[in-house]
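[step 3/7] fold_predict: job queued, chain A
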Amino acid sequence: MATNGRFWVATEATALGPVTPFYGIVSGRCECGKPATARHKPGKHPRLGDWQTANATNDEGVIKQWFRDHPHSNFAVVAGVETVVLDLDVRIGKDGVSELARIEADAGATLPPTVTVLSGSGTGARHLYFKLPPNLGRLQKPKGTKGIDFLRTRQAVIVPGSLHYAGNFYDFAPGLSPEEVEIAELPDWFLELMVAPSPTKQIHVGHGDGDGLFEELLKMGPPPGSLKPGRLRSDKAVMQKMRSVPMQKYPNDRSHSDSHWAWTLARNCSHHWDQYLRIWKNSEIRKLPDSKCGRGSYEASIGLAPIFDTTG
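[step 4/7] structure written:
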């Protein structure tokens, strides 16, 4: 695809949200010079810093300058700003296109036509763009799917005009470019499949109180040789934080609950880690019979017994 044609489709993609330049593919290799690995996907990483905000734009003039400076660049749209994306991945072990067809067949309904991009992978993978739905924060990919991703939190989605590592250009599906079809809304029946379950209700486990633990921390003071904390908070601020702990966040996993409590205490404590470890070692939660963290064998199995055996 010629540079002029790539520039045209990249600017057309601004109808989907702000775009940003990525490293391109030149002679079958990523412009950055790194080889393809499990963690490095050629042509799929940003060229500039602040790519989600300052260096993402709908301005045609800015995009034209990027093409002058980096004529082989790929481009990506930042999802979750103006649109969200259903990414239908097709590869070994995944087939988002077939999964979507199954979902539609089970529902007896189909998604409305919307702007659609065909991946340059050549596998049949595609990106379906939709308007920002209500209650976006409560949505996740459709339940029970492996090949469908829901891109909504400033994630990058490669746009047409970009060259895939497989050697094909991304392009709009026939009749489904921004000039040919409106960006659709996700229908209610599909949104119902995407609502995330409500978080587990947090309940107190009925031992001690935050103010008491905080006062004990102040009385003990840091052990000899402790490093100074990275940042200090006022006693009032820390005490307010401590009122939210201890808590049982995971009712069916007491060891996980205890760890969550200990981490919250450490994070909000104005002293150093070894001081918090001493407090936890002597805390009532570790004495409860159903608490795995209260058993020496559990601590030994994760290599913490020597740390918790601190005197004072």
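[step 5/7] annotate
Confidence is low (pLDDT under 50) at residues 200-210, 245-251, 253-257, 290-312.
The longest strand covers residues 83-88.
exit 0
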